Amino acid sequence: MSTLAVLGAGPKGIAIAAKARALAAAGLPAPRVILIEPGPVAGNWTGHQGYTSGLLPLGTPPEKDIGYPYPASWGPQSAAVTAAMAEYSFQRHLIARGAYADWVDRGRLRPTHRQWSYYLRDVAARAGAEVVTAEVTEMEADGERWRLTVDPGPPIWADGVVVTGPGPPIRVHGQPHQHPRVLDGRSYWLAAPAHEGRMAMNTCVIGSGETAAAVVVNLLDTAHRRSVIDVLTSLGVLYSRGESHEENRWYSDPGDWPALAEAHRREFLARTDRGVFSQQAEAVLNASRGFRTLAGRAVEIDAGDQQVVVTIEYGHERERVAYDMVVVAVGFHGRWFETLLGEQARRRLGQAEAGTGLERRIDVDLSVAGLNPPLHLPVLAGLAQGPGFPNLSCLGLLSDRILRRYVLSGSHWPEKKVSDLSA
Ligand SMILES: Cc1cc2nc3c(=O)[nH]c(=O)nc-3n(C[C@H](O)[C@H](O)[C@H](O)COP(=O)(O)OP(=O)(O)OC[C@H]3O[C@@H](n4cnc5c(N)ncnc54)[C@H](O)[C@@H]3O)c2cc1C
Questions:
Q1: Are 109 and 222 part of one and the same domain?
Q2: Residues 288 and 390 reside in one and the same domain
Q3: Res 132: pLDDT
Q4: Are residues 47 and 82 both part of a single domain?
Q5: Is residue 374 part of a domain?
Q6: Same domain, yes or no, for 351 and 407?
Q7: For residue range 250-271, what is the model confidence (pLDDT) as tens digits?
Q8: In the listed set 328, 348, 372, which residue is the last one of a domain according to the structure?
């Protein structure tokens, strides 16, 4: 039996573990799946370790659960696999708690992030997910296998590795690592309780994606009414998602995504995923006068005891603006795992990347094309394989694509491989 190790017991890891159970229940030779996680299962959604207060509503509908979109990927066994996965659905979770009718009658409300974490933990427990409580500190390629150094505990050997999680927040030049007046998309939520009920403050939120949107909505809710909130966006304008069927369907069913020209795929991601506010956030902002949008890029942060000065560049102009607090919400480092790679693994990854950019080298099974042993990077799979793989939009398809390699070794997906595609 082969072993698949997953860094992180968040939605992606749990989806893979649950699917492996469903495959075994359907009589397929599933690999052993080990989730390696230093904190609590689904901890990033609880509000206890940053990223969210836990009370924010989930952006995607909860019907996009661990098994969604319940694809028929397994030939004659597909019906049995889908039936087994239906046991892990969000509706099943509510039914078991007597909360299903209430949820339907209230209009199928979005759960909070914390409620979502309860659902994920419930699935992990019912699927009997194997979780090793440790942090991966090094990943080294040793022949055909991975050797994972973990803390604490002995090394873990695996035939394939999946990396999950958003990675650390991206920083602006000069941004201190820790400062009471300079926060980011993760630390804001750890500090937010302390800021509630404060005096009027001038705050700058840097960024125009959903992480920034959540911070702005929270500030509008909690800040003193004479506070000034500037939202700094390098796009000049804040955009929101359309959420039309034509846009949404690519997230659920990306089979023909690779056939779109790369320029069109990049444009789609920019319009619907990165750097856009959700419609829920947009609805709150539409009803608020307590913020304004500034056009420009933050190029430098100079943090002092009393104020934080942000240098803003727009075209050929530069200005320095002082704030009481700055929140840098410009995204996360998707390639964070590279700091964990040993010498051999780094060399092989460099060869596989072949100077073309890692995002272009992600194959149908979400691994890096040409890299052995396999390294699956769903967070970087948006450009090459589909916009839903980095997020929660198609966890059932994500787990099928990854697991298929270990269940049917030697066989291939009908879709085209990276090497067949013209960029
Ligand atoms: C506030 C917020 C709201 C979001 N809302 C949505 C939404 O509504 N819909 C959507 O599609 N996407 C949303 N996202 C995007 C979201 O990040 C991803 O969709 C989702 O987290 C992916 O799950 P995951 O399993 O990859 O990561 P996570 O849930 O972040 O889990 C990764 C895990 O990896 C662990 N880990 C980190 N380092 C190591 C290590 N060295 N060794 C072992 N384990 C490690 C972490 O402890 C963590 O538990 C949101 C993101 C944020 C920040």
A1: no
A2: no
A3: 98
A4: yes
A5: yes
A6: yes
A7: 999 999 999 999 999 999 999 8
A8: 328
Same domain assignment for residues 50 and 111: yes
148 C-alpha to center of ligand 1: Å? 21
DSSP string, 186-210: THHHHHHHHHTTPPP-EEEEE--SH
pTM for the full predicted model: 0.94
The one-letter amino acid code at 233 reads T
pLDDT, position 296 = 96
Distance CA 205, CA 220 (A): 12
Question: Which ranges constitute the DSSP H helices of 149-244?
Answer: 187-195, 210-222
Q: What is the pLDDT of residue 416?
A: 44
Q: Among 44, 123, 278, 397, which is best to mutate for testing ligand 1, by the most ligand atoms less than 8 A from CB?
A: 44
pLDDT of residue 237: 86
55 and 96 in a single domain? The answer is yes
pLDDT score at 198: 66
Residues near ligand 1 (Cβ within 6 A):
7-13, 36-39, 43-44, 51-52, 58-60, 135-136, 164-166, 211, 214, 391-393
Residue 244 located in a structural domain: no
Residue ending a domain, among 300, 328, 356, is 328
Alpha-carbon distances of 48 from 27, 39, 135, 188, rounded to whole Å: 39, 11, 18, 12
Residue 343 tokens, joined: 């010498």
pLDDT value of residue 197: 62
CA of 12 to the centre of ligand 1 (A): 8
The predicted pLDDT at position 222 comes to 84
Are residues 192 and 288 both part of a single domain? Answer: yes
Domain total in the chain: 2
Q: Say if residue 373 is preceded by a cis peptide, omega within 30 of 0.
A: yes
Q: Does some domain include residue 270?
A: no
- Dihedral (CA of 392, 395, 397, 400) sign: positive
Determine the Cα–Cα distance for residues 14 and 124; give it in Å rounded to an integer.
6
What are phi and psi for residue 14, nearest 5 degrees? -65, -40
Single-letter residue type at 325:
M
CATH number, domain with residue 50: 3.50.50.60
Low-confidence ranges of the chain (pLDDT < 50): 410-423
Rounded alpha-carbon distances, angstroms, from residue 16 to 221, 240, 391, 408:
37, 31, 14, 16
221 and 293 assigned to the same domain: yes
pLDDT reported for residue 196: 64
Site of tokens 């708690």? 97
Ligand 1 atom 53, closest CA: 51
Q: Is 103 left (phi over 0), alpha (psi -120 to 50) or beta?
A: alpha
Q: Which domain holds residue 312?
A: 182-239+275-328
